Amino acid sequence: MTKPALTLYVAAPRGFCAGVDRAIKIVELAIEKWGAPVYVRHEIVHNKYVVDGLRELGAVFVEELDECPDDRPVIFSAHGVPKAVPAEAAKREMLFVDATCPLVSKVHIEAERHHANGLQMVMIGHEGHPETVGTMGQLPDGEVILVETVADVVTVEPRDPERLAFITQTTLSVDDTADIVSALQARFPAIVGPHKEDICYATTNRQEAVKALAPKVDALLVIGAPNSSNSKRLVEVGRTAGCGYAQLVQRATEIDWRALDGIKSVGLTAGASAPEVLVNEVIDAFRERYDVTVELIETAKERVEFKVPRVLREPAA
């Protein structure tokens, strides 16, 4: 039986960013250096395949520090943690390694600098997301006001409208965030922004690639976890950019083939915490069902690399 023809437009950049790559290496090197188990506070990155693989190596994932014993290493996830967490680990004399993405750490430093200059912070982010929790936890209670939408800007009641700064979660929609920033600047003309936007290069690049391929395709599949902020944003960006059917799937087994019946073209990308092996798995699944032509839609090249902490580059004592 002849397979129907289908063009698969694959986005580039896609998948792992430098911060995710570094965080995973930190866990692998920690297990190699200190043996199992190594504890990780929160999922190191938001991807079940990655987390399950590290669990098999000897990582134990917990949500809070009080679930970790004092005598085993603990790693803080790529999303960052409130200041109280490393402080408590130090108090308990625990061996800990911070895998916070350096671009998230940059936002933490910005927040602290503005706070030191007497400015109250407005954070654009998603309530409850670990990155937002970690960033807000860098400053005392009441010093950070969270806004999620343009509508939220109306409700902001700062201590002093003339003494405000804003920061953002690194994995937001570039376009949605721009609208919120415009609303903040309209309401608070004196508000201070970051020297360089907080949304990270990888989030921006992956969204730009989706914008380029979305108008070309009948459907868009984003490989990523349901708790991955940057992956969910890619689905939204695809829909906004003109693709009527855009879905998030964790891997090939979640594809709704009936919904794709009769289509001629599919766009494929992966969130920043999704490994390339899952992209290849999806491509193989399409090849089983279609006569596939793969076309790469490349909008940027990424050469960013972050070093792992020195403690993991040194030999064990």
TrEMBL record:
Broad enzyme group: oxidoreductase
Cofactor(s) this protein requires: [4Fe-4S] cluster
Reaction(s) this enzyme catalyzes, per UniProt: isopentenyl diphosphate + 2 oxidized [2Fe-2S]-[ferredoxin] + H2O = (2E)-4-hydroxy-3-methylbut-2-enyl diphosphate + 2 reduced [2Fe-2S]-[ferredoxin] + 2 H(+); dimethylallyl diphosphate + 2 oxidized [2Fe-2S]-[ferredoxin] + H2O = (2E)-4-hydroxy-3-methylbut-2-enyl diphosphate + 2 reduced [2Fe-2S]-[ferredoxin] + 2 H(+)
Binding site residues for [4Fe-4S] cluster: C17, C101, C200
Signal peptide: none
Cofactor note: Binds 1 [4Fe-4S] cluster per subunit.
Active site: E131
InterPro entries, sorted: LytB/IspH
List of residues binding dimethylallyl diphosphate: H46, H79, H129, S228, S229, N230, S273
Listed Gene3D superfamilies: 3.40.50.11270, 4-hydroxy-3-methylbut-2-enyl diphosphate reductase, catalytic domain (3.40.1010.20)
GO terms, biological process: dimethylallyl diphosphate biosynthetic process; isopentenyl diphosphate biosynthetic process, methylerythritol 4-phosphate pathway; terpenoid biosynthetic process
EC number: 1.17.7.4
Positions of (2E)-4-hydroxy-3-methylbut-2-enyl diphosphate binding: H46, H79, H129, T170, S228, S229, N230, S273
GO MF annotations in UniProt: 4 iron, 4 sulfur cluster binding; 4-hydroxy-3-methylbut-2-enyl diphosphate reductase activity; metal ion binding
Binding positions (isopentenyl diphosphate): H46, H79, H129, S228, S229, N230, S273
Pfam family, one: LYTB
Family annotation (PANTHER family): 4-HYDROXY-3-METHYLBUT-2-ENYL DIPHOSPHATE REDUCTASE
Family per record: Belongs to the IspH family.
Function statement: Catalyzes the conversion of 1-hydroxy-2-methyl-2-(E)-butenyl 4-diphosphate (HMBPP) into a mixture of isopentenyl diphosphate (IPP) and dimethylallyl diphosphate (DMAPP). Acts in the terminal step of the DOXP/MEP pathway for isoprenoid precursor biosynthesis.
Protein name: 4-hydroxy-3-methylbut-2-enyl diphosphate reductase
Gene name linked to the record: ispH
